[in-house]
Every structure is written in C-alpha cells, then in structure tokens.
TrEMBL record:
UniProt entry tagged with the keyword Transmembrane helix: no
Top-level taxon: Bacteria
Keyword Transcription attributed: yes
Keywords for this protein: DNA-binding, Repressor, Transcription, Transcription regulation
Pfam families to which the protein is assigned, alphabetical: DeoRC, HTH_DeoR
Residues of the HTH deoR-type domain: 3-58
InterPro entries per the UniProt record, alphabetical: Carb_Metab_HTH_regulators, DeoR-like_C, DeoR_HTH, NagB/RpiA_transferase-like, Tscrpt_reg_HTH_DeoR_CS, WH-like_DNA-bd_sf, WH_DNA-bd_sf
Protein name, per record: Glycerol-3-phosphate regulon repressor
Molecular function via GO: DNA binding; DNA-binding transcription factor activity
Amino acid sequence: MSAEERHHEIITLVRTQGYVSNEELAQRLNVAVQTIRRDVNLLARRGLVARHHGGAGLASSVENIAYSERQVLNRRAKEAIGHLAARQIPDNSSLFVSIGTTTEAFAKALRRHKALRVITNNLHVATPLSAQTDFQVIVTGGLVRFYDGGITGSTASTFIEQYRTDFAVIGISGIEEDGTLLDFDADEISVAQAMMRNARRVYLLADQTKFGRRPMGRLGHLSHVHGFFTDRQPSERICALLREHDVELHIA
C-alpha cells in the first residue's frame, strides 16, 4: 500500500468513526505505529484530520487549511480536474470562476481557449487569464484577502448580480454524504451562491479530500449543480444523488 493510499484509508476511518487510535490504524493498515504517527502528523498539518494524543480525530469545522498547504495538497488531482472541466467550456463563452485552488488549476487550463469572458473574485484566476489578449477578465469589487487573493464581501456579491453567464465554476471545502455543500467563510459563500444563481450551468470542482469534511457554512446542495468534476469515484450514496438529480459526473 502506497503512502497516498494509506493516507486515504486513515481519512476514511476517521470520518467513519470520529476517532481512531494509532494502534488500531497500525493494525488495520499493517504498518508500524511510528509510520502511522508520521502519517497523522502530516495529515494534521494539511488540516485533513485533527491529531490527538494516541490517535486521530475529525478536522476542525471552523477553520480551513492554510492556503499555502491547499496549493500543494493533491495538486496533480486538482490539475487533472481542472483540465477535464476546461474541456467542457466552449470558446466564446462567459463564466464565473470562484475562489479555490482547484478553480485556479481550472483557470490555468483555459489558456488555449478563444474569446472567453471571465468574471471572478479570485486574483489567482484573474492574473494568469489577463495575459490572454482575446480574453476579457472582470474582477469583482470587495475586500481582497491578503492570504489567498480572494475577494469577498457584500460589494462582491452585489457585483455578481449584475451579470448572467453561461457557466459558473465553483470550488468547495466539504461535501457531506447527503449532498450538502459546505464552506468556511460566510462572505465567500454569499459570492459563490450569487454565481450559482446567475449562471445557466453550474460546474462543481472538488477533489476526493473534500468528501466528508465538515465546515459549518452551508453553500448549497449537489442537486443545485449541473456537472460534478472530481478525481475518484464517490460513494454509492453520492452517486445515487447525482443520478436522481441528473447531475453529470466527470472523473479525472
């Protein structure tokens, strides 16, 4: 079992049981306790689990992973998701793009497109796309967050309401088994909701680390999107929800 597979199993067990001791993890995964301690320390630094004395528990529901950690976390999967989603965007389209490291990967994958009109509250989306001479990039007003280049606040939400686009491409911090979409920041949620309301099609981009995370802010539900792009087959319950609401599933 590779380290990546082991990490996935640890996260799954923690989300299922709430807390798992290092000894139980070592026994289940057939590795030394010292290996599990290193794994748990790494996952805790990334915000995917909470490290407790002798084991691992659920990560915080009130504080997101640091932006610098999110940039490198599951980077290859995010790039694959971004490229897959970009292929669904035709030239000469208009789109909203929200805050998130996966949406940033998506934006970078748009560089071969022609004549796009992009409205975003993410400076890390606007900056690379603004170099495209036939793109029109519009940045919302609002408060720029120093730590991730996101733009939030009522000004940003009001700005979004002035437009109607072909697509909204949205990131998320957590997806519960009942399909609830969750995030940490209330202002960021308001802007993303405005994008979803004012787009003809909504695409959700989320890698497998978002399944089971439990931020406390409710953004919406999987039934509110038209396409879901991820890097691993979701649970059968999630797949049933997607089928029930005719949401297209795309796995990178």
